[in-house]
Amino acid sequence: MFLYHQLSTRFVEMISAGTLQPGDKLPSVRVLSKEQGVSQSTAFQCYIDLENKGLVESRPRSGYYVKFNPAQISGCTDTFVENPQPVHEIDDMITTVLQHSVIPNMTHFSINAPSEAMLPLAKMKRSVHHVLNNYPQQALSYERPEGNEGLRKQIARLVFDAGAQITPSEVIITNGCLEAINLALQATTNRGDRVAIESPTYYGIHQALINKGLEPVEIETHTHSGIDLQVLERHLVDDKIRVCVFVTNFGNPLGACVPEEKKKQLVQLIQRYNVKLIEVDIYGSLHFDDFRPKTCKAYDTADHVILCSSVSKSLAPGYRVGWIIAGKEYRKVLHLKLNQSVASPTLTQAAVAHFMENGRYDLHIRALRKALYMQSLRYLKAIHDYFPDDVRVTQPKGGYVFWVSLKPGANTWDIYHEALKWGISFAPGQIFSKKYDFSNYMRISFGLPFTPAVDQALKTLGDIVRSRY
Amino acid sequence: MFLYHQLSTRFVEMISAGTLQPGDKLPSVRVLSKEQGVSQSTAFQCYIDLENKGLVESRPRSGYYVKFNPAQISGCTDTFVENPQPVHEIDDMITTVLQHSVIPNMTHFSINAPSEAMLPLAKMKRSVHHVLNNYPQQALSYERPEGNEGLRKQIARLVFDAGAQITPSEVIITNGCLEAINLALQATTNRGDRVAIESPTYYGIHQALINKGLEPVEIETHTHSGIDLQVLERHLVDDKIRVCVFVTNFGNPLGACVPEEKKKQLVQLIQRYNVKLIEVDIYGSLHFDDFRPKTCKAYDTADHVILCSSVSKSLAPGYRVGWIIAGKEYRKVLHLKLNQSVASPTLTQAAVAHFMENGRYDLHIRALRKALYMQSLRYLKAIHDYFPDDVRVTQPKGGYVFWVSLKPGANTWDIYHEALKWGISFAPGQIFSKKYDFSNYMRISFGLPFTPAVDQALKTLGDIVRSRY
Are strands A305-310 and A321-325 parallel, antiparallel or unpaired? Predict the structure, then answer.
């Protein structure tokens, strides 16, 4: 990490903690440089970084001042009240939101993925060319069911970065993470089994269970620390849960990252009850802090964790390159994969392998993380400025989304329909649970680069929220 | 079609019918030209075509002579004797054959797909380049769950060529045909349902049923005309079949093409019993005769047929581009697709769409059909020359495979293992049925271009068969 970045991180901490208040003047570049024993250039770069993040402003001929404390609107409440809405209505809501999310020329705060502007189009293209020029025949032929060998090596490396030691031969490539989750469920469950999921959680996981005749058991999940282990244990005892499906790092929609100590406890818990954990780690590499959070797989001493992930949130949503580390279930999963779609496409796997082998993936992820962090702060400032005072927002340390709480009684489904008229979409809270009532919540993605148009759209959205208050 | 080709087809018919016998002298080019009212060049081209097909030979300073009548070894017998082998042993056999089929540097007569040498590598590459250069952003982004719009238009056209009138909005793109079949089964069946399949048939279909908790009911299928409708009707009555899965054109392993009149009867039958037909048409475009056989979907007046296909057997096995025309089940299938893998990869869909839009697909298919027909005749001649006299071979009018019957009591599983030692693989008959005993059958693919090495491998295989007789 660069020196200026370390310095800037310390300022962010001081601003968030309230040590530095909005309006406070910061030391001059010259003074900062002397105080911290860094070059003036580094001190200057630090202030530019803070300015880009929307936290400080420069006033002409006067210097730098604190502008905004992101913690001001933090503290999104965790409420778990039973949902009065029938499940089929929620299903209709999900379908509606999905259909709207592909309408062009709208500002989609509903999409939990990188915008095209943040993807390495030109470099990825070069990797495809490389494959076509060097392996024209292979690109057209069937890949092995377990997937491209080079890619599996790279995946093993990524999994190692997240704390778990595996070999390439343990990796099976899938059509995105969702296929990985589906395969894991097929390999570990029978119809009628109970499966623990987070609440709120990504509706796709819920629907995957329903399609397989499994019974979802929603476990209260907190914005700061993820799944509630006490509640989970109660359900493990009472409900004979067979499998858990959790997004442990920067989950959707909460953005919560399960603390490392708690991950250990979670693994111990599932080992004690001999339950499998299907761990989804699609956002783990998009951390805003310096260190990548580990996976539960890293603490999995007795092969109870099946790890699922993909490059859909980090590199190429449309390539559908995901993977599964199935442990003991490897042969079963491979057999299922073979029987469902033979193998994943050859060309896209080979291209992603080449992109990773050349270190381009690591470079890209570094830039993407930085951009997302910056965007998250700019969005937060705009929400603070434009939304009612009592609105509270999570402060995720990674990923793409804010979970925004409005005052009790507010209805984000109504707000959603009003916003559509203005060409704006977001994800209303209702679609993330069939058990609990999140009708005064909304999920806002900061995957779109922060532009004047995005700023204006957030202002319009804030006005709509105010008008419904 | 070219004039010489029409002429050559008539000679093939006369040779097959025995009107012209091996050893018979053919009229000189000059005489043929006069008799038929064609140019000498056309007459000459006709003889070259027949020579390429291995049916005639030119003797220096003497002229052309009939060399081989493919009908000589035709008449593969249809026997349906119950299989004494336990099902799990057959499962092990399937796994074994699949594992061997990826060993490099072997002559794989076991692979029912085009060899790389028969695929349009350079032109397909240009289509990928076109997509990358013209839509770099889209190529990385999610495709809609139903798939690329341009591709769906092209699929609608292909389906129309096979006799069924549909619109692009009825098409859903899948990860190959196997995903299409799986989606169709999920949309139309419940656990425990009975599903009629052909016998013998592709083991992948059998396994797809088992994975879904469905009960396969194997229906006797004949090498000439496909499924036995009387047997089918008996099972429809007795067994409460819910769905049928049939490969109607050049099915695997028989290569049978259900005659058009029988297709109509089949559709009437399933309509009468209110049963769905999942029709697999991956080989239909690879016809050796001038006209493409229709699909049952073409006769489907009351929406009982779900059509599944792909380009895996015709253009790009590794692209995993398939499709499903689900009729009334459209919404259900789309929902399942979305929940299983979100969408198919963007880049490969767009590339195939471009390849088709430019007429390259039609040109390629025409060349592929011609090459496959030629190869089938060369292989047939070699099998006739090298295998025991009583060996009989199907004469498919399309596709990739011969179904070869050895004398009763011969065991192709033993022959398979001996062949492996010589670097040769084929598909032993046992793996195509769990009900009937096909242990004296073998499936030989003619997907590899006929080279001296292939000729030698067929000779070796023939020697092995003889040694076991």
Answer: antiparallel
